[in-house]
Amino acid sequence: MPASKIYPKDLNDLKYAKFLLENVSFALKITNAIGIPIEKGVERLPRKWSKSVNSFVRNALMVALNFAVKTLPDKNSISSHEFLHKVSVAFTGFVGGLFGLSALAVELPITTTLMLRSIAGIAKSEGEQMDQIESKLACIEVFALGGRPKQDDSAETGYFVVRAALAREVAGAAEYITENGITEEGAPVIIRLITKIASRFEINVTEKAAAELIPVVGGIGGSAINLIFMNHFQNMARGHFMVRRLERIYGQNTIKAEYEKL
Predict the structure, then answer these.
(1) Of 233, 201, 227, 164, which Cα lies nearest the Cα of 20?
(2) Sequence-ordered list of residues with C-beta below 8 angstroms from that of 15, at least 6 positions apart, any chain
(3) Which of 254, 240, 238 has the alpha carbon at shortest distance from 7?
(4) How many other β-carbons are positioned within 10 Å of the β-carbon of residue 262?
(5) Separation between Cα atoms, residue 222 and residue 96, nearest integer Å
(6) pLDDT on residue 70
(7) Number of domains observed in the structure of the chain
(8) How many CA atoms are closer than 13 Å to the CA of 172, on its beta-carbon side?
């Protein structure tokens, strides 16, 4: 359907989706909340931190992928309890804030899985068929959204560019899981998907951990950081699945072209 035929309500939805997906970064949200530039926290991270966080992120995403494939088959059991999920991650953030980096290996998989449950609820509310493997992997894709590389090149951060970069890995993983399930986590197609998503999700996790290391934060601040973390990815999910809903109506090419014009 030509872009001129997009109904005004759907065009407004697309504008709102782009606002959610392309505007305020997670780091800026944290800075605005605590009044201290996130770079102050990054300076306090240990030198060996990058290797550790990469391992934590990969593990958290694998836990989330297992949860998505094995525990989200019943579309009727999924609901968008966004507030309840925020309360839950506030508690995990409180614990993380008290114990610092040593708690992240335990806290991050729990927080990521709670976020995934909320993301799935949002997906369902936007018409996704949650018994389909493609919809489950679209939920995992959300963790790759909103993470800005150190060299912030807009060509690398655009929503459709990120989706295009993941398309081959998502398609390969969907085919593999459909045929074999998620029994072999070491399958190359699964590893490639997790690696690609982790490279972007890791940016936000590093910013979250850095904020929790700022002396004024502590346990209570850790709860606030996790609330911002959850809200950020709920916004990414809402924008992502609004776009996917409109693509099902008008086609991806039409929606992409209109999105880029906005």
Answers:
(1) 233
(2) 262
(3) 254
(4) 11
(5) 6
(6) 81
(7) 1
(8) 14
pTM of the entire predicted model: 0.86
Residues of the chain with confidence (pLDDT) below 50: 75-80, 85, 91, 98, 150-155
Going by C-alpha positions, the residue among 243, 175, 201 that lies closest to residue 60 is: 201
The pLDDT assigned to 191 comes to 92
Alpha carbon 148 to its chain centroid, in Å, reads 12
pLDDT digits (tens, 9 = 90+) for 213-224: 776 655 556 677
Structural domain range at position 91: 3-261
How does pLDDT run across 67-88, given as a tens digit for each residue? Answer: 888 876 554 444 445 555 455 5
Radius of gyration for the alpha carbons in the chain, expressed in angstroms and rounded: 18
> Is 248:26 a contact under the CB 8 Å cutoff?
no
Reported residue count of the chain is 262
* CA–CA dist 212, 96 (Å, integer): 8
Residue type, 76: N
